[in-house]
Specification:
There is one protein chain. Helix content is 45%, strand content 15%. The protein contains 13 helices and twelve strands.
């Protein structure tokens, strides 16, 4: 592999001149600049960004830890983060932890060794990895995260989202509304359930948590299993629901499969709402009414917060809530 000394020798200049040409840190004569550029091309020289960062510069690289990049929500968010980071002159290293604590810790160590300028961390990983592991890196928690002092957090206003979804169903005449939550240990699940309860209370509807509230993972399978539990307990009874609010779109799609097994048509027999507005929601049959997270704003604000943290590592931690919005399609019926 060619070194900066090889480039300097071939171009007939000093290594300092090569450095100034590559980094554009000082005026270099046109003749010297062209000689350096030709030597770089001829030798296929690639600057060592890690070595450059060791000298106090910037690696121009950011890290991002996610639990499952196959989830359409995360896949869409990653694309936005990469686009925004690139617009600021940064490359993105994506680390898929697959929910494995040891793997997450290894990635943090790797990112530290690579001397990335900062890291974005999704909540599931932040709750698994000791906070001390992040001490050497400027960091922003995305989507949620521990409330430790000094950590920046940007998240969806899940309580508002749960409220908007439930109120939408109430406004269309539904009074017996089931909810399929994610794991109740998670911030998003807790707050979407709180929004559900707030909307029911405002409408004077007594929530039957034992019959109507069922939990699963944020996945097709989680929605399938939670919906099986809900319908097994309520179908054909006085507590039968006319609508179901699933806490993400994947769960809604898994729930729809169970509804079909029970002979329930959506929305004629059962109304269904999701959350996230993943790309597939509009192509679902029928197109899924859902709560959209502001994906572009989430990416833009997360990068902005991270750049601010990188510029002032000792500043106080920030917490930013982004409001979701309702996307009305065809999966909810007016009673």
């Amino acid at each position: 592999m060619a070194t900066i000394r090889d480039v300097a020798k071939l171009a007939g200049v000093s290594t300092t001149t090569v450095s100034h040409v590559l980094n554009q840190t000082r005026f270099v004569s046109e003749t010297a600049r062209l000689a350096v550029e030709q030597a770089v091309k001829q030798l296929n020289y690639v600057p060592n960004v890690v070595a450059r960062s060791l000298k106090g510069g910037s690696s121009r690289v950011l890290g991002m830890l996610v639990t499952d990049s196959n989830n359409p929500f995360y896949a869409d968010l990653i694309q936005w983060v990469d686009k925004v980071a690139y617009s600021h002159g940064y490359n993105l290293i994506l680390c898929n932890t697959q929910g494995n604590v040891e793997r997450a810790c290894d990635y943090i160590e790797m990112l530290t060794q690579r001397r990335v300028d900062g890291v974005l961390v999704m909540s599931a990983d932040a709750r698994q990895v000791p906070l001390s592991a992040f001490a050497k890196l400027p960091m922003v928690m995305m989507d949620a995260g521990p409330s430790a002092v000094g950590f920046d957090r940007i998240l969806d206003d899940s309580e508002l989202g749960g409220y908007l979804a439930t109120k939408y169903l109430l406004d269309r005449g539904h009074r017996q509304i089931g909810i399929l939550t994610g794991p109740l240990a998670k911030y998003n699940s807790q707050h979407r359930l709180a929004g559900y309860h707030r909307a029911l209370a405002e409408a004077g509807v007594t929530a039957n948590d034992k019959a109507w509230v069922h939990s699963g993972n944020f996945s097709y399978e989680g929605g399938f299993e939670a919906m099986q539990s809900l319908l097994a307990q309520t179908h054909g009874s006085n507590e039968a629901v006319t609508a179901v609010f699933a806490n993400n779109d994947l769960m809604a799609m898994g729930a729809a499969r169970v509804a079909a097994d029970y002979g329930l048509r959506i929305p004629q027999d059962l109304s269904l709402m999701g959350y996230d507005d993943i790309p597939g929601a509009q192509y679902f049959n029928p197109p899924l009414t859902t709560i959209a997270q502001p994906m572009q704003a989430l990416a833009e604000q997360a990068i902005a917060m991270l750049l601010a943290r990188m510029a002032k590592p000792d500043c106080d931690g920030q917490r930013l809530l982004l409001p979701p919005s309702l996307v009305e399609r065809d999966s909810v019926r007016q009673l």
